[in-house]
Amino acid sequence: MRTFVHLLLLLCAIAVAVGTFGPLIGTVEARHVQLTELRDGFPAGRSLDQIQAQSVSLQTSLAIVLLGVAAVILLATLFGSRLLGWLSVLVGLAALGVLAWRLDSSLGDQIRNDYHHLFSGTWGLYAVGGGLIVALLCLLVPRERRGF
């Protein structure tokens, strides 16, 4: 990969890692969402405040997946591996997609009615999503040509 691609991927890994600990929607952070809730869906009748108030260990939360994605992007940067880069970006986008799908299925009306309030100050979502999108664009840059 090209040098500027390595630099941008390094910045993307940092953005994803830092954004993991920021708010994703309203006051909900990745460390508040259990992996079982992503698998099975959020229980009926729960609000975003109840999701934010639950205490979840780091090992069973969405934060560990996003930190793993950031670590694999960093490894892809250090070793120049496009395969690791693509794998991490696709897993990160899938994790955010599943979170959006599960939130929409259980809290869709609240999100649609209060989206101005819920998406103001969600710098964690913007850092993670932006980092993944920029990393995806970096991986689309063609390799440099080899000399004869």
What is the N-to-C order of secondary-structure elements (H for helix, E for strand)? Answer: HEEHHHHHH
| Dominant shape | elongated
What is the count of helical runs? Answer: 7
Low-confidence stretches: none
Percent helix? 55-70%
Structure summarized in a few sentences:
The chain is mainly alpha-helical. The chain has helices spanning 3-19, 35-40, 48-53, 62-79, 82-113, 115-118, 123-139; strands at 23-25, 28-29. Helix 1 packs antiparallel against helix 4 and helix 1 (3-19) runs antiparallel to helix 7.
Q: How does this model look, in words?
A:
With 148 residues, the chain is mainly alpha-helical. Helices cover 68% and strands 3% of the residues. The protein contains 7 helices and 2 strands; from the N terminus they run H-E-E-H-H-H-H-H-H. The protein has helices at residues 3-19, 35-40, 48-53, 62-79, 82-113, 115-118, 123-139, and strands at 23-25, 28-29. Strands 1-2 form a two-stranded antiparallel sheet. The radius of gyration is 17 Å and the shape is elongated. The chain starts with a helix and ends in a 9-residue tail after the last helix. The mean pLDDT is 88.
Descriptors:
2 strands, 148 residues, mainly alpha, single chain, two-stranded antiparallel sheet
Chain-wise SSE layout:
Blueprint: H1 3-19, E1 23-25, E2 28-29, H2 35-40, H3 48-53, H4 62-79, H5 82-113, H6 115-118, H7 123-139
Antiparallel strand pairs: 1-2
